[in-house]
Amino acid sequence: MRASPGGRARGAASDERRGPRAGLPPPSRGAAGMRDPRAVALAAIRRVVDGGAYSNLVVPAILARAGLDERDRHLAAELAYGTIRRLLSLDRAIAVRSSRPLDRITPRALHLLRLGAYQLLHLRVPPHAAVAETVALAGPRERGFVNAVLRAIAADPPPPPAGASDEDVAARTGLAPWAVRELRRLLPPEEVETAAGAIAGRAPLTLRPNPCRTTPEALEAALRAAGHAPRRGGLLGDALLLEGGRPEELPGFAEGWFVVQDEASGFVADAVEARAGERVLDACAAPGGKAVLLACRVGAGGRLVAGDVLPKRAALVRRAAARLGVRALVLAQDARRPALREGFDRALVDAPCSGIGAARRRPELLWRPRREELSSLARLQVAIASAVAGLLHPGGRLVYSVCTFPRAETDAVCDALLRRRPDLEPAAVIGPEGPAPRIRLWPHRHGTDAMFVAAFRRRG
Q1: How far apart are CA 10 and CA 29, in angstroms?
Q2: Are 196 and 180 in contact (CB under 8 A)?
Q3: Of 157, 234, 266, 445, which residue is 20 to 30 A from 423 by alpha carbon distance?
Q4: What CA–CA distance (Å, rounded) separates 318 from 311?
Q5: What is the DSSP string of 49-60?
């Protein structure tokens, strides 16, 4: 099968669906039995794209079962995360070189094309190896078509678009066009593409020391003694940044010396301003990184209550508290209808959201959220924040945060909350540029996830 440079590949073998299992891997190709890093990556990609799973959970789990050596493990992780991160630009390249529209390609064939195109366009894999090894994973009905399209991409890689439209920026960065439009509403024009690229970038592994167990200096020394090269955070002076590694294998993990926490999330915990002896509520606490630090700060004379809507997520908070050696009262509850009474000094609502600002660690969040979902998310966010505000005693402090940036989930929620709760007034958060009632953190400015943080005080 040949493909002319610059032309569309045509495969003689059909990739049309055949029966109820079409597009699904044969039973013998379970991740536990795979030794090919591309097959492992393919399994992870399909779980994330087709199954709606989160890459930060699925990729490590599949890698753990696959039994790969260290080199192949790194390759499989790079292929999985990279393909998911570059999904929009890969689909554009495939559409340019394929004789069929994307919606006429079976899911398995499309994932193979994405996997192969990522190697051809973004890695230093020899083209013949990228094509041959990827095509080897295709079934008989898909093989000819996949081979032809990948050979066409290898022979004449489609260049990225040169325009300035939302779609062009999306193709270059990986961030959905509607999210690019949201950035244009919030940032100067010259920062929009830089911000989109940073949101779609890779994040370091960030550790926040547990002050109840160690100091930043002691943790840094232990990491260096183990051969790591940590650097201090730019936003939080006690944060330690690593270029990679598995947290559970780092010194101090079992002893509870640190939590894995982006600097933006650490900033949120600091914005609560919890003090020794206070009663503090973390209303949407799972997986528990902020809650355990707040528990340490209130100490034995205070009380940290951590809630989440699902028992299995509340269990994550209990596990984190046990590892870090702090006391926390953990309960499963719907924060819109809390099973608690008024009397808290401070409360944190790190609300469910579209999560786009955390795409550096979960790259599927670049393209998975839909703009039409924002209204329902905003209603949920307002309902939670309003209910939690009622649990504060007069003078109590409420912090609202979301790891995203659309106005519907940020400023609009705060405005709606103030209308619904006239007993609230804006309060200051000490941000990188000084105090303000609402703070936005950006990866291209602050080196963090994109985060929105606002504070309120209950009058009285």
Answers
A1: 28
A2: yes
A3: 266
A4: 10
A5: HTT---HHHHHH
Please give the Cα distance from 367 to 357 (Å, whole number): 12
Cβ-Cβ contacts under 8 Å for 423 (sequence gap 6 or more): 389, 458, 459, 460
Same domain, 129 and 73: yes
In the numeric block, which tokens belong to residue 54? 């989160």
| Sign (positive or negative) of CA dihedral 195, 200, 206, 210 | positive
Note the pTM of the prediction, 2 decimals: 0.91
d(CA 235, CA 284): 24
Residue in 284, 296, 353, 403 annotated catalytic? 403
Instruction: Report residue 212's pLDDT band, with 50, 70 and 90 as the boundaries.
Output: very high
Do 254 and 273 lie in one domain? The reply is: no
Residue type present at position 12: A
pLDDT in tens, 49-71: 999 999 999 999 999 999 999 99
| Whether residue 448 sits in one domain with residue 313 | yes
Instruction: State the Cα–Cα distance between residues 41 and 224, nearest whole angstrom.
Output: 32
Only one residue has tokens 């205070």, namely 302
Domain count, the chain: 3
The domain that contains 210 carries what CATH number? Answer: 3.30.70.1170
Whether 81 is covered by a domain: the verdict is: yes
Confirm if 145 and 109 have CB atoms less than 8 A apart.
yes
Residue showing tokens 């990228």: 130
